[in-house]
Amino acid sequence: MDADLIVQILFAAIKTGTPLLFIALGEVICEKSGVLNLGQEGMMLMGAVVGFLAAYGSGNMGFGIIAAMVMGSIMSLIFAVLVLHIGANQVATGLALTIFGTGLSAFIGADFVGQTIQGFQPIAIPLLSDIPYVGQILFSHDILVYFSFFMTALLVYVVNKTRIGLTLKAVGENPHAANAIGIKVLRVRYLAVMFGGAMAGTAGAYMSLVYTPMWVEGMTAGRGWIALALVVFASWRVGRIMLGAYLFGLASIMHLVLQGLGWSISPNLLAMLPYVATVVVMVIIGADHFKEKLLAPRSLGKPFDPRNMA
Amino acid sequence: MKTHNLVSRLELANITKQYPGCLANDRISITLMPGEIHALLGENGAGKSTLVKTIYGVVSPDKGDIIWNGREVNIKSPSIARDLGIGMVFQHFSLFETLTVSQNIELCLSKSQLNNIGDLAQRIIQLSEEYGLNVDPSRYVHSLSIGERQRVEIMRCLVQSVKLLILDEPTSVLTPQEVAGLFNVLRTLSKEGCSILFISHKLHEVTEVCHKATILRGGKVVDTCVPSEETPATIAKMMVGDLADQDAGYSKKEGTVEVFNVSDLSLPSKQPFGTALKNINFDLKAGEILGIAGVAGNGQDELMAIISGEDERNVKNALTLGKLKIGHLHAGERRQLGMAYVPEERLGRGAVPDMSLTENTLLTHSTGFVKNGLVQWQSIKEYTTELIGKYKVKCHGEFSEAQSLSGGNLQKFIMGREIGQHPKVLICAHPTWGVDVGAALAIHQALLELRDEGAAILLISEDIDELFLLADRMAAVCDGYLSPLVKTEETNIDQIGQWMAGTFINTAVQEAQA
Fold first, then answer.
1. pLDDT value, residue B45
2. Nearest by Cα to B254 from B488, B9, B493
3. Residue A309: which pLDDT band, with cuts at 50, 70 and 90?
C-alpha cells in the first residue's frame, strides 16, 4: 500500500463516518438527559427525504439541510410528547418512530426515487489543505463535514465546560434530585430530544444530499442503529464519538479496500467488525460494574413525572 | 440564641395538606425565631416530612400561610425557597454522583450568586475551614462516604448563606463522631442567626442540641416543649400520646406452648450504618401476640430480616420453630414450615408493584394453587376476590396492579393474604403504618382472630398505642439489645418508654458478662 491509498482510505473513512457522527452526537445528548430514543433511523430517513425534496424543489442545498433539521426536530417532538408528557414507554415509542419514519419517508419520496441532484462540492480550506497528507484527509471535504467538526468541538465544550452541560448530566443522572434543586427536568429533556432530532435530520440530509445525492427508499441502511451502538462504544463521551464514528466508517469501507487489494476475506465478516468492536467494548465496560455505573446516565430510559414528587 | 430580634424567621399558620385517604397536615402552626434550633418530632406518618416539603416548596399546601421574615410568601418551587434563603438537607441525599463536589454545589447557585462568590472552589475550602466541615471541592461525589456526602449537602446550603436550614433525620446515617461534628456545625450556624429545623427520631439528640420542639401526631401539633427541660422518656410520651384516652379494648390472652424461639442471636448489620443485633433471646407462644416497641433504626429491620430469612446468613442454632432449627433455611423453606411475614415496605417487598393482586397472592401461596406444575388461575382468582371482599380492599378487582392501590388498602390485602395461610408464626412489622382508622381496626380484628386460632404473632411497631392495644406480652429494642419481656397488663408506658431509651441495657450487658 502506498501513501496515496492510505490517504484515500482515511478520507473515505471520514466521509463514511460523518452521518454516523451526526446522529450519534444527537443521540448522546439525548441519552445524557436520560432519554433513550430508538427512533434514530426513522428521524434520519425523514430528514433524508425532506432534505432531498426541499433541495430538489428550491435548488438551494442550504435550504434542504435546514428543512431536514426541522423535519428531524418535528419527528423527535412527536416522540418527546409521547414519552415525556404522556409517559409512554421509551423503547416501544422509539421503535414505533422508526417504523413510522421508514414508511412515511418511502411514501413521500415515492415519486422521486432515482432523481439526482448536484451535491455539495468539496471545499479545500486554504493553507490547511496544503499540509501534506493531513490536509488531504481532513481539509478537502464538503461543508457538512466541517460542520460536523464544529459541532463535535462545540459539544465537547458545552458538555464538559459549561453549566448547560452540568445541568444536562444532572438531569440524566438523577431527575428527582435535579427537580429538587429547581432544574426544569422536562424542559431540559425536551430540548435534548429535539436537538437529537435535528442532528438525525442533518445526518439524513448528509446521506441524500452529499454521500449519495439522490433519494432511495431506506437509504440510511441501518445507520441509526449503528449510531446507538456507537454511543455505548464511546461510553457516552462526546469526544470519543468522533473517534468511534470514523473507526466505524473505516470498518465499513474496509471490505472494499481489501477486495481492491485482492484479499479474499468475506466482506460479510469485515462488515461485522463495528459490531464486534461494540460488543467487546460493552464487555470491558460491563466487567467493571462501578465504572459502568459512572459512565451511563443513571436514569436512562426511565420516565420522570414531576407530579409524582410527593 | 439571639432573642432581641422580634420578627420571626418563619411562621407557619394553619398549614393543611390532604392526601387521598389521609390528612397529612392538619392546621399546623409553628414559629421559628432567628438562630433557633427547632426539633420536629413524631412517629412515622405523623406528617413531618410533608410539612418540611411544604416549606421547601416541593409540596404545595391546600390551606394555610407561610410568613417569612414578617412577609407572607408563596413558595411554589424549591428554587423560590432557595432564593428566599431556605436550604434543605434531604434524608436521601440529592447529590449527583458523577459530578464533583464543586459541580454539585454550582448547580444550585444562580448566576448572580456565582458571580458574587467568584472562585467557588476557594469559597468551599474557606467555609470548610470556618465550620470544620472538611469538604474537598474537587472530589467526585461517588467516592465520598455517607457522612461526607451529608457535609456536601450542608455546604451547598452554606454557600448560599441560608437563613433557614432544614435537616430531615440527619443523624440516622452518621457515626457518633460524625454526629458530634454535625452538632458543632449546627451550634455555630445558630449563633450566626441561622434558624434550623431538625427532624429526628433520636430523642437524646433533640434534648442535646435543640432549643424548642414541636410534636406532631396524626398530622396535628399535639405539644410543644423546651427539650432541655425534658427527658427522652417524657418526650417519648408526648410523641406516642397519653394512654388514658385510649380504651383498653381487646382482651389479653396467655400463650400456650412455645412455638418459636430466638436464642443468643448476635449479628453485625449488613448495612453500613445499620444496627448490630446483640444477644437477642425471646420465645413466642402459640395463641399470643408479642409486641416489640422501639424507635426506628434500633435493630428492628435487622431482626425482621434474619427471622424471615431475607438476610441469608446462616444462624442455624439461633432460630427454632417447634423443635426444628431453621436458621439455615431460606425464606421460602421457612414459609413452607408455616411462617408468614408482613414486611414494613409494602411495595417491592410485601408485593410486586406491577403485578396484579391475583399474581401477588400466588407469590406466597404457591403450594395450594399449583397442580401438576400448572397454576390454577381460576381458583386463585376466586380466592383473591374473596380476600378483597373479606378485608374490604378498595380496588377495581383482582386484576388491579398492586401499585394502583393506596398504601392502606395494599396493607389490608397483604395482611389478609398472609393471615389466609393460617401460619403457625406471623411476623409483622408496622401493620397499620399509614393506614386510616377504619382499615387499622379491620387489621387489628384480623390479627386477634388469628391469635385466637392459636397462631403466634410477633408484632414490631413504633406505634406504642397499638402495641398496648394488641400485644399480650411486650418488650422494647434499643441499639440492637432486646429488653426483658413483660406481660402488657403488668407494665406501663413509662417503663416501655424508658426501655425504648435504653435504660435496661446496662443490666443486660452485665447479665451477658456474668
1. 65
2. B488
3. very low
In this prediction, residue A264 carries a pLDDT of 76
Same structural domain for residues B228 and B300? Answer: no
Say yes or no for a CB contact (<8 Å) between A177 and B99.
no
Number of domains in chain A: 1
CA–CA min distance A310, chain B (Å): 6
B95–chain A nearest CA distance, Å: 7
With b for 16 or more beta-carbon neighbours within 10 A and e for fewer, the A42-53 pattern comes to bbbbbbbbbbbb
CATH of the domain at A239: 1.10.3470
Q: What is the pTM of this model?
A: 0.69
Domain that holds residue B427: 245-513
Q: Are B356 and B496 in a shared domain?
A: yes
Average pLDDT, integer, range A130-155: 89
Q: Do A177 and B106 touch (CB under 8 A)?
A: no
DSSP A100-113: HHHHHHHHHTGGGT
Question: For residues A281 and B328, which has the higher predicted lDDT (pLDDT)?
Answer: B328
Distance in angstroms (rounded) separating the CA atoms of residues B170 and B155: 14
B49 touches chain A (CB under 8 A): no
The per-residue pLDDT for B21 is 61
Q: Is residue B2 part of a domain?
A: no
- CB-side exposure of A293: number of CA atoms within 13 Å? 10
Of B244, B273, B292, which one is at a domain's C-terminal end?
Answer: B244
Measured CA to CA, the distance from residue A283 to residue A287 in angstroms comes to: 6
How many structural domains is chain B composed of? 2
Q: Rounded to an integer, what distance in angstroms lies between the CA atom of residue B256 and that of residue B459?
A: 18
Q: For chain B, what is the mean pLDDT?
A: 84
B210 shares its domain with B321:
no
A 153-212 residues inside an 8 A Cβ radius of B:
163, 166-167, 169-170, 173-174, 176-183
Sign of CA dihedral B497, B500, B505, B508: positive
B22-80 pLDDT, tens digit per residue, is: 678 889 999 999 999 999 987 666 788 889 889 988 888 898 999 999 889 998 888 88
Residue B464 lies in a domain: yes
Q: Report the chain A residue with the minimal C-alpha distance to residue B78.
A: A182
pLDDT digits (tens, 9 = 90+) for B242-289: 543 444 567 888 888 999 999 999 988 877 667 889 999 999 999 999
Among the listed residues A88, A97, A90, A85, the one whose alpha carbon sits nearest the alpha carbon of residue A187: A85
Residue B82 contacts A, CB cutoff 8 Å: yes
- Nearest residue on chain B to A172, judged by CA atoms? B96
- A109 closest CA partner among A64, A51, A58, A22: A51
Is B76 part of the contact surface with chain A (CB cutoff 8 Å)? no
- The answer to whether B447 and B387 have CB atoms below 8 angstroms apart is no
Gap from A173 CA to chain B (nearest CA, Å): 7
Domain boundary among B213, B244, B275: B244
Q: Does B146 reside within a domain?
A: yes
CA distances from B349 to B249, B303, B340, B423 (A): 31, 16, 13, 19
How many residues are listed for chain A in this entry? 310
Which is nearest to A65 in space by CA: A205, A212, A220, A213? A205
For A88-98, write each residue's pLDDT tens digit.
899 999 999 99
Complex ipTM: 0.77
% of chain B exceeding 90 in pLDDT: 21
**Is B142 in the A-facing interface, judged by CB distances under 8 Å?**
yes
Q: Report the C-alpha gap between A72 and A30 in whole angstroms.
A: 13
- Write out the three cell numbers for A84: 415525556
- Using the predicted structure, report yes or no on whether residue A179 has a pLDDT greater than 60: yes
Give the three cell numbers for residue A72: 428531524
Same domain, B385 and B503: yes
Most confident residue range from A249-253, B11-15, B93-97, B133-137:
B11-15
